[in-house]
Amino acid sequence: MAFVTSEELLATLVPIAVYWIYSGMYVMFESRFEKYKLHSKKEEEEKNLVSRKEVFKAVLCHQVMSIAINLFTYAVTREKDGEASPKKSLTLLLLAKQLVIAMVVIDTWSFFVHWYLHQNKFLYKHLHVPHHRLVVPYSFGGQYMHPIEGFLDTMGGTLAVLLSGMSPRTAMFFSSFTILKLVDDHCGMKLPGNPFYLFFNNNSAYHDVHHQLYGTKYNFSVYFDIWDRILGTYMPYSLEKRPDGGLEMYANSQLESDQIELSEAASFCNIGQIAAGGSWRCWKPVPE
């Protein structure tokens, strides 16, 4: 029996190709979309604590791990049955059911993993801080994270596919859609006519709030904002045009005046010191 089938290989590799093609489009045209950017280039250079080159390398490492996990999962689940499961005729009703289940699973998994990484000071400091070195997010930074967080993130997608009963072909389309959403949420722009804004309340601006110091404990959601609203971690915002071009984002509630905990702020200060020294790796924990 083959270790992996062609459909399983496509389900693993196509979403990665989608990641780089879609994020690459944003990079190519970002200079033409200055008036839609949530932050200026100067802000990115001043606030971000990791270079684009380092982010690029770390994302490649994450994707190599994801490939290994996905191929192993397909091999194990097929071996459990002895043979590949017979294909079911995919009706629209079954497809809709699988997509809803998968979206609910990945949304719930990602929210609570993400939320807990912020609640637990040790895990935040040693696992989640790398992702927040991108105070000004950009398209291909969505998968920039500590390897252990990357493993947890990959497992969310794996569980969504397994629990929904998706075939590798359906999983390929679902995972690609999830990747498009991830890239879009981190693109740092609010483009008019973007279809994600029509169907999802949590978009690039929504997630950008989370990357700011005042919003690090708010706006965790991936697909839906229901968990943020239930747990009181929803922070509304408004956008205004900047005189020098682009958009300025403001928190739309009294939450804006809340101070992040001193220990969390100290973590960012330490990160800045590490970045200034230039000797840290992308997932190196903040020193005691």
UniProtKB/TrEMBL annotation:
A GO-annotated cellular component: membrane
Record flagged with keyword Magnesium: no
Residue ranges crossing the lipid bilayer per the database entry: 12-29, 55-75, 95-117
Domain Fatty acid hydroxylase per the UniProt entry, residue ranges: 100-233
InterPro entries reported for this sequence: Fatty_acid_hydroxylase (IPR006694), Sterol_Desaturase_Related (IPR050307)
Superkingdom assignment: Eukaryota
The UniProt record lists the keyword Transport: no
GO molecular function: iron ion binding; oxidoreductase activity
GO biological process, one term: lipid biosynthetic process
Record key words, sorted: Membrane, Transmembrane, Transmembrane helix
Subcellular location: Membrane
One Pfam family this sequence matches: FA_hydroxylase
PANTHER family on file: STEROL DESATURASE
Family note: Belongs to the sterol desaturase family.
UniProt-recorded name of the protein: Fatty acid hydroxylase domain-containing protein
Originating organism: Gossypium barbadense (Sea Island cotton)
Lineage: Eukaryota, Viridiplantae, Streptophyta, Embryophyta, Tracheophyta
